[in-house]
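Lay summary. Proteins are chains of building blocks that fold into shapes, and those shapes determine what they do. In this project we predict the shape from the chain. Here is one chain we studied, written as its sequence of building blocks.
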Amino acid sequence: MNALLNRVFGRTSPSLGEDYPAIKAHVLKRIADTAVGENPFYHLYIESLFPEDFYTAMFDYKQALKVSGQMIARNQDNAAFQNRRYPLADDHTQAVRQFRALWDDFDVRKAVLEKFYIAPNDAFCDSVRIHEKEFEFVFCEEGRFQNIHVDIPQKFLSFVFYFPEIGMDEQDEKANATILYNRELEPVYGARFRANSVCIFAPHFYSYHGFATTRERDVLVMFYTREKNARDWQEVTRNDLDRGPDFKATLDLVEEKLEAFPLIEYGADPARIARERAACRINAPKGRVIK
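And here is the predicted shape, written in a compact code that computers can read:
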């Protein structure tokens, strides 16, 4: 199966291809043309994200992987079950290489960071990178529920790209997309589980989200992180400081991130950050909220 995937999907191609500039231009325009949603927290839901040919290439590769027997377990969504995943950090398939180059591109990084952060300078935009350990296709069966969480403090942007196998009615589109929750942990359906679309948000004190599948849910997840923030989080987990009961170490890192890199949603007011910290509902490790 590996040899077949290599042959069909062009793993050995050294070039990003003649179509790459057009893919980048298309994505930059879709980012620029899409307004940020503000309820229940700032998020960006972009449809028709990629040119159709490129989306089809990624979809076809996802389909081939799904039946390849190369999946590994994904355990973090809910303790009651395992989902399946396929890591992409070391994948050299042409479409994946183009995908990664696109989101690693400085212009694209800056364009999407500007949707959430106050005047992000070049040094900040250049310092964020794709989080290697969670750059992957994720495959969920129907009837699965992800614990509500805010994402760990090292993450600066969270991306969920949608790859449904079939069209769905509105109810299923809402349920199988990323569900955003308000401060009362009531669901708000800011995204739709539609082909060639993505939901993006900046994690903070009340970026509560999850999913509850009613159909098979095939997605690609990706995050932007910074090396220093990743080291700080590793220090917290290595010293077993993410166990509660007050989750001070986790909240400290979120606060430090927001003060160093202010969000448009919060502004630069320390009092606002303090209020949101005091109201944060994290009550389990790794930014989880157990109702």
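What the prediction tells us: The longest helix spans residues 52-66.
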